[in-house]
Write a structure and sequence with these properties.
Elements lengths: L3 E4 L2 E4 L12 E5 L4 E4 L10 H4 L3 E4 L17 E5 L3 H5 L1 H8 L3 H15 L8 E3 L4 E5 L2 E7 L8 E5 L4 E5 L17 H11 L6 E4 L5 E2 L2 H28 L2 E2 H7 L12 H18 L3 E4 L2 E4 L1
Parallel strand pairs: 4-5, 5-6, 6-7, 11-12
Antiparallel strand pairs: 1-2, 2-3, 3-4, 8-9, 9-10, 10-11, 12-13, 14-16, 15-16
Helix pairs in contact: 7-8
Length: about 300
């Protein structure tokens, strides 16, 4: 595979369309003593020896598209933030992590086994914020907890190279995703403010944007990404300005995904996200309830 960017000890193997979902971008860090992979997206299955000889996988968080190469590394150690650990260790943990209805979970499980080579890792262990790894030869990694996308979402920073893998704070036009049971809109807002101060000179995203090497560009992209949250809140206000809506009616109108997107979890993600926005807008005194309908306050 030739589509590789290198930053000292760090190799970034770009996935299809710069890692656009369902693919992702694979970071591999080469220390003198240890080779580490950050996540294992679909592209990891096409890399070969550079990936297959990894000693340690550090997952920035637990989702199906970040675990798609774990089946290739049965002997490698796997670590993830402790808040996401159960989601890596078993299907039951991942199902609770998603938090969807049982019929949706059944379809999601079928999809991730078929399309993402899903294999749980009961041997996985948990790390915490500010944990550090010394790979030898002066190559050092630090975990920076940035929850919201999931409760355990982290940036993985190769401090020796100034490279920050920021995972699914991916700076895409879609905007932040917080549609699962372990997601948090409030935590995502806080993480977006915090990541702006992360000490790095290269930022690597899981999806689509891939690599940014200019801080001004990174901050501009981060601002546009973060602005999607308030745009969604304004969109809900617009719906309610037309008249009262039930939660089901709001889900049907869509907040995140265009109509026609048919992934099995879309309605569940819409439901979870809309609930978070309604709670936030209610706390701001902008939205109230009239029976089972939501109205402008």
């Amino acid at each position: 595979m030739d589509n590789v960017l290198r930053f000292g000890a760090v190799a970034v193997h770009l996935g299809e369309k710069s890692g656009k979902y369902p693919d992702g971008n694979q970071v591999i860090v080469h220390g003198a003593d240890t080779r580490v992979a950050f996540d294992t997206p679909l592209v990891s299955n096409r890399i070969g020896a550079d990936f297959d000889e990894v000693d340690l996988v550090l997952l920035g968080h637990a989702h199906e598209d970040h675990m798609a190469g774990l089946h290739r590394l049965p002997r490698a150690r796997v670590e993830v933030h402790a808040a996401d650990l159960r989601a890596v260790q078993s299907w039951e943990g991942l199902a609770a992590h998603y938090g969807y209805a049982d019929d949706v979970l059944a379809r999601v499980r079928e999809m991730i086994v078929r399309d993402f080579h899903y294999h749980p890792r009961p041997d996985a262990t948990g790390y915490l914020h500010d944990q550090r790894w010394d790979l030898g030869g002066g190559v050092r990694i630090r975990a920076h907890h940035l929850p919201g996308h999931t409760s355990g979402h982290c940036a993985l920073v190769v401090e020796s190279e100034g490279v920050a893998f920021i995972g699914d704070i991916d700076l895409t036009g879609f905007g932040p995703y917080y549609g699962d049971a372990t997601s948090s809109l409030a935590a995502f807002r806080a993480s977006l403010a915090e990541i702006a101060h992360l000490d790095a000179k290269v930022w690597v995203t899981s999806h689509h944007r891939a690599v940014i090497t200019d801080r001004a560009q990174f901050l501009a992209d981060l601002g546009r990404f973060a602005a999607k949250i308030d745009e969604r809140g304004d969109k809900l206000i617009g719906y309610l300005r037309e008249g009262p809506h039930t939660l089901a009616e709001l889900v049907d109108r869509r907040l995140l995904y265009p109509r026609g997107v048919s992934l099995p979890y879309v309605e569940s993600a819409e439901l979870n996200s809309i609930r978070m926005h309604l709670d936030e807008l209610a706390a701001q005194g902008r939205v109230g309830a009239d029976g089972d309908r939501f109205v402008l306050a």
